Amino acid sequence: MKKLLFTAVVMMVTLTASAQHATGSFALKPTIGLNLSNFSGSELSTSMRAGLAVGVEAEYQTTPFLGISAGFLYSMQGAKLNVNPWGVKLGKVAAKVDYLNFPILANVYVTQGLALKAGLQIGVNMSSDIDIETSFLKDNIKVADVTDQTSSIDFSIPVGVSYEYQNFVIDARYNIGLSDVYKKDNTITTLALKGIKNSNIMITLGYKFDL
Length: 211
Known about the structure:
Layout: H1 2-18, E1 26-40, E2 46-47, E3 49-63, E4 66-81, E5 91-111, E6 114-134, E7 140-145, E8 153-165, E9 168-180, E10 197-207, E11 209-210
Antiparallel strand pairs: 1-3, 1-10, 1-11, 2-4, 3-4, 4-5, 5-6, 6-7, 6-8, 8-9, 9-10
């Protein structure tokens, strides 16, 4: 019994040590996952759009309890619009707004492998379309490219939690949009898109390795 208990303790210590990053260490984390995005602050009825999130983040371990991370993520965002503004009933209208996001986060490790995080994110708009997602053709019809009417920079506050086990990291974040998605002088006011902000849930899986 004592041998079994000793073996269990050794295994727990080994697993804990494998997930621990020393103070002053620098780690990279390629990551890929799912966005569930929507708009907030609009009178228009919207629903979530699912999209891809992929990129890499780097983290510097300042203390055993605090790490500072920064990175870049290609993020497919936007929302589905529960309207048919052109009288077309072929499918659901979608506002597709894709960004290259640069998050800077403080990661507070409350226990081994478990971190609470918050920070600031700057997004650069890469493309912005209004599409009709057809049901019977299972294809998209691009109605308008509205990149020139979309704000080029998007600021948001990411808050979330992550758990690391044997260098694999599951990360869940909620990005609170601070900036208007579309410019104030846009011409797509028939969609009631003035003053709306991004609202984004991101769930990713990454692999963290020390340099």
